[in-house]
Amino acid sequence: MSDLEDLYQELILDHSRHPRNFGHIEKPTCEAQGYNPLCGDKINLSIKIQDGVINDVKFEGSGCAISTAAASMLTEEMKGKKINEVDPIFQAFHSLVTGSDKKTDIDLGKLASMEGVKEFPMRVKCATLSWHTLKAALEKKEEIVSTE
Ligand code: FES
């Protein structure tokens, strides 16, 4: 394993053991619940938006190490992003974790550490649960969004 792979593993472990932005925002602009029916894990994302920019985002719920680390990284990476930046980033992240060869010039930052998920197709839903939830929250979907 290369040093870089080691580092990425460390990053995922660190975020799963010490999730950032864990909790619920008071009076959020929008929020949504996500559900992975394959394992029963649930997540809630609450978001504060001002002038089209994500000012704050928090998550809560229980999930596996991958889903927790992915949600934690999502909250860090999405703070300060414009709403219209979310979709292209999600598409790039989805391509990364599914191993798609779609070309993108989007810098995924810490999210790039999730690339190893592409070797484990069953875990793609773990890595994307928080992203589906984020999209549902921004689209103000009332029903619980499922990864299926
Ligand atoms: Fe449930 Fe990963 S096993 S989200």
Explain what this protein looks like in three dimensions:
It is built from 4 helices and 4 strands. The protein is α+β, with helices and mostly antiparallel strands. It has one domain (3-146): Sufe protein. Chain: A. The structure holds FE2/S2 (inorganic) cluster. The site of FE2/S2 (inorganic) cluster has 9 residues, from helix 2 and helix 4.
- CATH fold node name: Sufe protein. Chain: A
H/E element order: HEEEHHHE
Q: What is the CA-based Rg, rounded? A: 14 Å
Shape: globular
Structural class: alpha+beta
Listed once per kind, the bound small molecules are:
FE2/S2 (inorganic) cluster
Protein traits:
four-stranded mixed β-sheet; binds FE2/S2 (inorganic) cluster; 148 residues; Sufe protein. Chain: A; globular
Question: What is the strand and helix layout of this fold?
Answer:
Elements: H1 3-17, E1 30-36, E2 41-50, E3 53-62, H2 65-78, H3 83-98, H4 124-138, E4 145-146
Parallel strand pairs: 1-4
Antiparallel strand pairs: 1-2, 2-3
The structure holds FE2/S2 (inorganic) cluster (FES).
Residues 36, 39, 41, 63-64, 66-67, 126, 129 line the site of FE2/S2 (inorganic) cluster (FES).
